[in-house]
Structure formats: structure tokens, C-alpha cells
Amino acid sequence: MSLFGVSLATLFLTAQGVVGRNFPFESAQLTQADARDIPAIRFGDKERAPPWDVTTPRCRAWPDSHDWPSNSEWKQLNVSLGGALLRPLPAASACYPGEGFNETTCRWLVNQSDRTHFWIDEPLSTLTQWPQGSTCPLTLNPEGSCTRGGFPKYVVNATTVKHIQAAVNFARNKNVRLVIKNTGHDFGGRSMGAGSLSIWVHNLKSFEFIPEYNVGRYSGMAVHVGAGMESWEQFNHMAANNIAVVAPGGNSVGAVGGWIAVAGHGGLTSKYGLGSDQVLAINIVTADGKFLTVDPNNHQDDLWWALRGGGPSTFGVITSVILKAYPPINVTTASLSFSVNPSLATPNTTAPPANANSLTDLTSFWGGVSLTYHYCTHIIAAGGFCYSYIYPLGNSSFSFTTSHFLPNTNFSAASALLQPLYTQLNTAHTIPVTLPTNLPSTPYAGNGRRTGASGSEAVNTRYRSRLFPSSLWRNTTQWATIFAATIRAAVEEGGYTFHGIGYSPTADVAGWPGVDSAVHPAWRDAALHGSLMEVQPLGLTAAEARKRDERVKGYVGRWQALMPGAGAYMNEGDPAEAEWQGRFFGVHYRRLVGVKRRWDPWGVFWARTTVGSEGWEVQSWDGYPMSQNGRLCRVVGEK
């Protein structure tokens, strides 16, 4: 639960002399006096940092190694944190003989936890388990013992900026690996790390509506959002204040932090831009332990640019963000679905059941899906958003579902826009779909009664993605060829689920200050974010996991061959992406490395595929692809 809840922000002069708009939890800061008697939490000096290409220490400290902090140092850190240092057991340890065993808890975790908020509020877990290394899978029939694997060694339950500053300073001064976690919506292993100290920002949930905010060329409404805020909470605040804010669509996704750091998309992306485009100010703890407000007026131009799109877990720990706010807006929604060969579907499939609009002809099915994706360009041109899945159901059975969201569009206009799609599906592909006669138009903010109580569980999903450029939609023949070779092949032959989101966050839509940021330029010309999703069984051996990894790379390779310059969304991308610097950051990468070296010359913040991360690697004990179960060490010869 939040320590402060909803509160009024105050203007406060920080210990480092930067004026910002702070929540009460940000006014509680580490001082030089606090750190004077505890060397391990003293502030850093970037001017005295070692050169970027230094080769020592070779690795981050490791439990039981000679440089691992002593028990007394950990106790001292805990005292400085006021008791906020945690050492939680893996949740699944309840299923294994040993310290955490509890049969009742184990059964609840296996059978009921996915209907609660448990995994979002758990300090160690993320919503995909493969980075942990499969050393403690959740099961009613465990084999062997449960070990921590890639889970952090210690967790700081951060409820003040002081907690974060002390943790950052301790990790830097004692050479301990540092990771950051909020909700665990982490599909790339960034919030895990064996032998690490984790900063858990989940309880920084303050919110403030600002009726008038002025910075640079912006004058208008804004909101101030704590780093632990979840999307469902933010939507409830929107409803309470009669406003709209660009926010993640998933209820339990963090509303700021990693979402805005790598662009961030939502239902209003085609109308108002990406999450990164909304940012007006950022409060952050940097690698030297100092707390800063970064905005267009504070003369940290390179950091201001980099924080918006240049990646998470790279430049510091965000504590709160000020975002643009808009007048309330209604959204008209239309859902469409159809399937093929539902009677042949494999029993007990985990995908949604086939629907009433069923076909028996694969050509008609795939033609209809291709047409629907092609037609999405009309929807995004109107400021809309297309959200879809294609599910393989087994035995040549497939299901397609999509929702079209149209902001500020009444029923008449929505019907006029969508009817040609339904007509073409009927006439060209004999798909028996009918546009509803009463499309619902509801407040984007909802009714203020959203909850985050269900729908989030710790599974084992791997993502691979691309931003499909708008040039692919120039004519239907070109699109049909691309669609068949990329999306259809991956689902029909590969058996992967495809998740497609259509939007158009152009530079014109981004406006100021979003248009001048580190967001990958590929976003500005994207018409579709496409992801391949594979839910891997728990308990795979390392060899089995590597085999699956190589198989999906073959299908992604086809995408790359047909879209050689396409970018990818890091938050739903592949941490094993071979050319990740270009895919995730594009032409901005070199400049971002310069910002990283200036603001974090020690390399305090590290996660795979983040800026500057190629100089380090996890020496995994288990051999799982991209596992975080191992010591973090320098790559010999890498500068």
C-alpha cells in the first residue's frame, strides 16, 4: 500500500540546489550529514569517477566473494533505511521443502493467485519467469529444491527518495549490482539479477492534478504521478478530476518509469502521442546519488533528451513525472472477431475459444485478417487505435479478434468509418460479420471504479517485436505479400500468437516537447507494432529453452529480411536481439552512449540491451538464454 497516498505537492529546494515540484516522499532526502558516518552511502563525484573503459573491478561483487559487503555493512544500510531492507524468499518456495514451505500457500499460488493482485505487489517476481533461470518454478509437484536463481539478494522497499539515494550510493560504493522494479511488467529480465540489490519503487503512488502548468512552450493542464502508480489507479484519478491522460492500456502496468522511458503506447497514442511525448518534468535519483528535477528549464539538456525514449534502468531511478493532461474525452469502441475450423481446435487450448463468426476456408480467414490490418490505417488516420490478436488453436484452427478505438467520434461518424471494412469482409472474403447498430461511446477515463485485482500472473512469455513502417501499406498487393510472409507464416507455420497494435504517433502528433527526444525515429513512421508471443512451459531444461529460442529467431529473421530497417519496441522486444542498438534506439544510439557516460560513468545502472550495456554480461550458471542467474562481469576487450 502507498505510504502517502494522494497528496498535495510542494515546491521544495532540494539538497542539490535544484528547484522542483516534489511530493512529500521526495522531500525526505539523504543529506551529507546522514552519509558522513556511513562511508558506504556517501554521494559520488562524477568528476572523480574512473574512466569508462577501466577494466577493474572485473565483476560485480558476489555473495561470499571477498568484496561482498559484510553483514555489518548490510545492517548499517538497513539502519540508514529505517528498516526498509528486505530479504524475501521466492514466492514459489512455499511449494518446496525448506524454510518457506507452506502447502496451503502453495495451492493458493497455483490455483488462485492469478485472480488477485498478488504478483504485482510481490517484491521479487516479474510477470515472466524465464529470466530467473527456472530454479524455483511454481508447481504442485516440485522436483529438487528451490533456490534464488536470478532473483535479487536484497530489496529496498523504497517509500522515500532518501531510501533510493542510500541504495544507489551503497551499490556504487560497494560494487553491488543494482536493479529497479515496480510492478514486474518486465518481459526482458531488467528487474532481475542474481546477487543484486533491488530498488522496489512500487509504493511511490502519489498523484496530483495541476490545473495550470507552465514550462517552456507548454501551458495547460498537467498531472504529477509517483513512480509506483499503476495504470488502473491513474485512470481512476482521471475520472475523479474529469481529465484525460495518455496511459498504458494494461491495468497493472506502471504509469511512468519504464513505460515512458522507451516510448510507451496506449489508447490515445494516435491522437496525443506516445507516453514519452507527454513528459514535462522528471524527478530522478542519478548514479551519484543526487536527486534532480529534469525539465526544459534546468540546463540538463542531454539528460532531458535521453530520459524520454532512451531506455529504462540506464540514467537513474525515476521517482515521479509531470505529464500533459487533456480535457475529458469519450471513446467509441467496435469489436470484431472471426475464426476458422473451430471444431478442429485442440482441446484445453489456452487461447480464447472460437467465436460464432466461424469459417471453414483458410484462404478466406487469412484474407480477412490481412484486410482488417490493412484497413487499420484508416482508423489511425482518424486518431484511432487498433488492438488485435491472432491465436493458433491447433489442427489448422485459428481465431482472430480485434477492437477499434475511436476517440471523440460519435456513433454516426464511427459507423461511416467502419462500415466499408465490414462490407469488404462480407463481399471479398465471405466472412459473416455485421457492424453493430449501437456502438458504445464511453468516457476514456472510465467510471472511477477500476481495480487491479486480477488478470496478472507470473507466466513464462517470450516476446519478439517489430515496428511495421507505414510504407508497407502503400497498396494492398504489397501489404498482402508482407502479411503472408511475416505474420501469417509465424502463426500458421510457427504456432506463435501474434499481437498487433495499430497507431500513428507521428512527429506532428507528438508536438512539443515530445518531438525533440530520444524516441526511436521508427516510431514516427510506424503504423503497426507487431509481436510474436510464446508462452513457454515452466521447468524447461536449458537445452530445450535454447532450441525454442533458435526456432523463433528463424521467423523473426524473415521479418528482418523484409523490413531491414524496422525498429522494435524494447519493452516488448527480444533481449537476445542481435542488433539491438539499432532496433531499439536507431540513429540516437551513439549520442545516448555519450549521455550515459556523462551521467553514469561508474555503470551503476545496467540491464541487458540498455544503452552502454554491451560492456557487461551475465555469466549464467544455468545456460538458459538471457537468464539473469549469474554474476555480472565485464566483457573482456569491450570498450
UniProtKB/TrEMBL annotation:
Domain FAD-binding PCMH-type: 148-328
Pfam assignment, any one: FAD_binding_4
GO molecular function, one term: FAD binding
Entry keyword set: Oxidoreductase, Signal
Keyword Repeat annotated: no
Signal peptide residues on this chain, from the entry's feature table: 1-20
Matching SUPFAM superfamilies: FAD-binding/transporter-associated domain-like
Family: Belongs to the oxygen-dependent FAD-linked oxidoreductase family.
Entry protein name: FAD-binding PCMH-type domain-containing protein
